[in-house]
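INFO batch 0412 | record 1 of 1 | parsing
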Amino acid sequence: MKITAVVVTRNRPALLARVLDALSAQSLRPDEVIVFDNASDEPTRDMLNKRADVSVLRSDYNIGGAGGFARGLQQALARGADWVWLLDDDAVPHLDALQRLVAARASLPADVGALCPSVDEFGALALQHRRYFDSLFGRERTVAASAYKDSAVRIDTGSFVGFLADARAVWAAGLPRADYFVAYDDTEFSLRLKAVGFSVWLIPESRIDHLREVGARLRNHAFGPRHYYNVRNRIAVSSQYARWPLLAALRASVVGVALWMISSHPWQVKSIEMLVRALADGHRRRLGELRPSTELADGTTVRTTGY
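INFO prediction complete | emitting tokens
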């Protein structure tokens, strides 16, 4: 069984180095590590050039986290991977994380499409990474903390923070959608696995540290491109996979408005216009990258700055 780790990175060399060191120190080491470098600056390129233990794919421009995972996963499959472990460049697995995922596979049903570790953030369990999806209205809810006492928990969606995907399931479902650019590409991919007959499981004893900064939370910033992708893609996923798509899209829109309200300076004209655009594009499922130069009504130019 060949296991390939795929790490998507952009301009975070120090964090990336920690992730790569943790992968090389795994009690069950991946057979190959592929880093998709999403148009990083020189410090990241220099660091990767010194690593003999990774294969590097580079893009000359930022295609978003979704595009990076799609391209990296495609390359892993082309090189004969049986399982592909997807990680962000700030996701540091515990030293036995992969071994515990693989060991758990033996006791699970044959339809397993993906295995996910539990995620810790800010020194505590981060429940939002592993969720259930209501097939009627598209409502998402987190797996309860009490369920993490079990050896394995069947879930509906998992983030790409340590998402171990079976190549058979990927061949059946297709690659993650690059046109999501960033946010909810992992949710959509999880639901697509389920739609073609595969299951997704949380393995609580396998653990990974997601080294997010507190200041990186969406609520701490003005409503901008990152918020746009979150709201737009949430609506697109809900309307596509819920049995009552219109109600699901409306519910997701309400969540989007709530995110706008708790963001920094929501009543700025550029924030309001970004919200309106996110809602409109989500309902139309008009995906792809938010163009780098978007002229707003007040003359402000919004530029994407990565993910």
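INFO post-check: The domain at 3-212 is CATH 3.90.550.10 (Spore Coat Polysaccharide Biosynthesis Protein SpsA; Chain A).
INFO record closed
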